[in-house]
Amino acid sequence: MQNEIRKGVNQAKQSEQGANWFFAEIFIIAVVSGFYFSSWWVFGGILLASILLAVNKKARFVLLILLTVGCGAVGWIVGSWFNSTGASIVLTIFSILISGGYHIWAYRWMEDN
Question: What is the pTM of this model?
Answer without folding.
Answer: 0.77
